[in-house]
Amino acid sequence: MKIPLIDLGAQHQPLMKEINSSIKEIFENSSFIKGPTLQKFEKEFAKFIGTKYAVGVASGTDALHLSLMALGIGPGDEVIIPVNTFISTAYAALYVGAKPVFVDIDENTYNVDVNMIEDKITKRTRVIIPVHLYGTPAQMDKILSLAKKYNLIVIEDAAQAHGSCFKNKKAGTMGNLAAFSFYTSKNLGACGDAGAITTNSRKMADLLIRLRDFGRLSHTQYSEVGINSRLDTIQAAILSIKLNHLNRWNEKRRQVARYYHLKLEALNIPGLIVPQISKDCLPVYYVYTIRCKKRDKLAEYLLSNGVQTGIYYPLPLHLQKSLKSLGYKKGDFPITETVSEEILSLPMYPELTHSQQDFVIKAIMDFYAKN
């Protein structure tokens, strides 16, 4: 049996008739950039998240970058982010000339350790970017309290958290702005790169709409220096179709996760830890990540038996060559460094069957019986 980490074919197959019809209509109208199809998706996504506005952009990275641009963040400013995240969270700060300041993670949730944030705040701190890693929200109440105390801006990195909730509030509604990615593998994924920014501010939404299009006021007039980061119409149409299924897909992911929990915990394998979810959180399981001993050997064994896995992320940001100029070194973030050597993401997608999960679980059991 071959079990991929994610099976996009299984997701797309039942949607192909509707997707092809939408793409055909776009080709017939030759409306490939902006226009009513994009506006329709933006309104639908804002309604789904629970904000007044959503602004479609070219990627999740651009969503972060444009958010910082719109807020006037620049040289001399500091942006606090968790050290255990995808590298674009840090790059977005660098793109505007600001300095990313890393914080270690909570060993149970793998999200930023909110108790460590305050010590990182300086006179230069302007923004906190909490990352809702793996589809589980960060502890936003404590983060928002710190932001209020120090007059800071909060940008949610919700790239992996479409539909997740913290204390009944959806990811993307709690900060000043929120950045979403629609990369192909995400819970709501395009068929290429795409992203969005959510906000309740009309002024901010209008500014972002200009900034994503070179700072354009009209066809020939420009009010700000912007970038080229438009969400194209074909991706918007596909996302509109998929959005109708997202709640159902997220619930299926939670069912898959519950089955993994039940079966893996019953194995009583020393050192194997299933995801720890706070009662305040409703996760959407972008990935299902365990901690385990002999991680690399287990991953090799699973692959040799047809099971694909992933690691998010094997090398923490402070040890990346491209971020060496920030001055961090090995040992600065011990929890992240330990966790990064033990985390392993198992196959996770709404269409995953119990028989497929049983195959994965048996392979894990067999590995530890032999090792």
Automatic annotation (TrEMBL):
Keyword Signal: no
Sequence positions bearing N6-(pyridoxal phosphate)lysine: 186
A biological process from GO: polysaccharide biosynthetic process
Active site residues per record: 186 (proton acceptor)
InterPro entries referenced in this protein's UniProt entry, alphabetically: DegT/StrS_aminotransferase (IPR000653), PyrdxlP-dep_Trfase (IPR015424), PyrdxlP-dep_Trfase_major (IPR015421), PyrdxlP-dep_Trfase_small (IPR015422)
Gene3D superfamilies: Aspartate Aminotransferase, domain 1, Type I PLP-dependent aspartate aminotransferase-like (Major domain)
GO molecular function: pyridoxal phosphate binding; transaminase activity
CDD domains noted in UniProt: AHBA_syn (cd00616)
Cited Pfam families: DegT_DnrJ_EryC1
Record keywords, A-Z: Pyridoxal phosphate
Family: Belongs to the DegT/DnrJ/EryC1 family.
Name of the featured protein: Erythromycin biosynthesis sensory transduction protein eryC1
Origin species: Candidatus Daviesbacteria bacterium RIFCSPLOWO2_01_FULL_40_24
